[in-house]
Amino acid sequence: MTATVGYSTMLPGLHDHDAVPRQALLLHADFAAAIASCLEVGAATEVFYCVGREHAVDGFRDFCTGLESTHDRAIEELAFTLVAHAWLWQFRQCGFGSWTVDLSRADDGLVVCEGTAPSLDAVSGPPIRAFVAGMLAGFFSSLAQRELRAIDVARYSIEKTSPGAWRIAVGGPQHTKDVLAHIESGASFDEATGGSHDR
Q1: CATH fold label, 27-192
Q2: pLDDT tens string 119-143
Q3: pTM of the entire structure?
Q4: Crossing angle of helices 41-71/126-144, nearest 10°?
């Protein structure tokens, strides 16, 4: 994945809500939460992850078409942060809170997405977190044109986070598996992200 750090001169278009096709993300957070409340957590988590991933993959082409039309450039010619933040704007539109992309760990093979979803505090259980992680995995896999995995590191990390704060890391399948294993063993996110990994 090629990451262009910083916004381009096309930044104003990022805040044009009509620039992002709404059909690319149709499932509202309240609806997802209602479904999750009817399912057993253990069984629902992986299902929700897969549903979120496929949902993002299915909507990726429409998203690209809308963004390319707005900026009159191919998606590959747009700054990475512009594309990522334009896509994440849909999360806010659909009740999943405000999200940002942290590229400070890109050299370690990870893109970290952080968000706050206060409207989901009461229902932000494993299935909903898995759905969001699946969405991020589907989007970044489509953008990078390779299989990536997303893990919910805020759920397990011993680091203190504010209520409603989410942190999801996206990277190669084996690397994210290793990072999550370290975190579940009690390591901090910083400690868990060292070592070799698949890029």
Answers
A1: Muramoyl-pentapeptide Carboxypeptidase; domain 2 (3.30.1380)
A2: 554 445 677 788 889 999 999 999 9
A3: 0.77
A4: 40
Between CA 80 and CA 198 the distance in angstroms is: 21
Q: Where are the domains of the chain?
A: 27-192
Cα separation of 92 and 86, whole Å?
A: 11
Question: Which of 70-84, 135-149, 156-170 is the least confident region?
Answer: 156-170
CA distance 36 to 143: 28
Cα–Cα distances in angstroms (integers) from residue 32 to residues 98, 102, 130, in the given order? 17, 26, 11
Among the listed residues 57, 62, 38, 58, the one whose alpha carbon sits nearest the alpha carbon of residue 136: 57
In the predicted model, is pLDDT for residue 75 greater than 90? yes
CA separation for the pair 57, 111 (Å, rounded): 18
Q: Which two tokens stand for residue 165?
A: 């704060």
Placement of tokens 């999360």 in the chain = 91
CA distance 189 to 142: 25
Question: What's the token pair of residue 174?
Answer: 């084996």
Q: How is residue 158 annotated by DSSP?
A: S
